[in-house]
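User: Hello, can you help with two protein structures?

Assistant: Certainly.
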Amino acid sequence: MQKIGRQMGSNLAGVYQDKEGRRFYVKSLESPAHARNEIIAAKLYQLAGAPTLTYVSAKELNQIATEFVELDKKHISRLSDSERRQARRWLGVHAWTANWDAAGFDGDNQGVVDGVVTTLDVGGALEFRAQGDPKGKAFGACVRELDTLRKNVDNPHAVRLFADMSPVEINEAIAVVTRIPDASIRRVVAENGGGIALAEKMIARKADMAKRMT
């Protein structure tokens, strides 16, 4: 493949085009563990029905590749009211996967693709922060992100998007996750190289979210 475009995030990356003219965004992460973490996160998003980019096989184990798409919009500030409602539907998925970077450092992790609000990068979900550092005990069985994504002033774009959600909207966002069967979570994690401990943690996090429903 031939490189035809530059990186668009904090990780070493570029836009590549193959002989058939198909374009892909390929980024190189710190390790295969980081790449595996992002793939599992993307698969869990997709299991929940939350729109993400389309992931494809990468050449190297520490790389992530997605089909390149043209965005209708790329910034939370540009979302219409109906698009904001779309984005807020997935609060529960962001919280469940501990995606602290759901909105993006600059508000640019939510984009619109063919009219659908899409999470553009899930590299900040599960076990690693968006910049690659491990979350450690901060990624536990208690889903604090249901609150922090709505209230943490250090994450202003997430607050801007999620703070004014009604109790009904929050319940609906939680239900998106609690409806997922435990067996499906175990299958997705295992099929994408994750361990039993991660699968059981995601099931425990789902159970913790169910307690928050009113």
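That covers the first. Now for the second protein you mentioned:
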Amino acid sequence: MDLKEVKERMRSGRLYYPTGEDLLQEQAKYMEILYDFNQTRPCEGEKRAQLLEKLLGGVGKNCYVEPPLHANWGCNTYMGDEVYANFNLTLVDDARINIGSHVMFGPNVTVATAGHPVEPLLRSRQAQYNLEVNIGDNVWIGAGAVILPGVTIGENTVIGAGSIVTKDIPTNVVAYGNPCKVVREIGEKDRKYYYRDREIDLD
């Protein structure tokens, strides 16, 4: 199977073997950029931003990713504007990860597009498939959450810390758990209180 066919299978959700030398060499180029990004000093904000633009497929305005960042590729992840990611964001981006604007990631979040067959022989040969992940605008993903292949999260939604997101989550809801489920809609109370009985006192 040549590199062109492998990359087509990577994008289309079909099974493939991610072990070809040409594919690994191409991936290694992005791993070098990722390494440089993770070695930056705290005072090197401009350098970090430049490296992030080289690494990712697309980066909007004023995005901030706290090292260390982990990624299978990097180039298959696309961020909108004002994205914030705390440390140890892991992007298993063998297929495309689309991240909207004003999205926040807590520490130790994993976003995975890659899966493997349950059938043991195929898995022993490292067969893989990938399904695109989509995260809408203004989503907050709490610390330690895991987003699995093929999932779409609607805009304005909050995913609670430690959640395992196995299925699509709609817009304007709070969802958490393992597996992650919708607990409630975002509503009038959220416009008055920011945490339990603590009232919002900012414009």
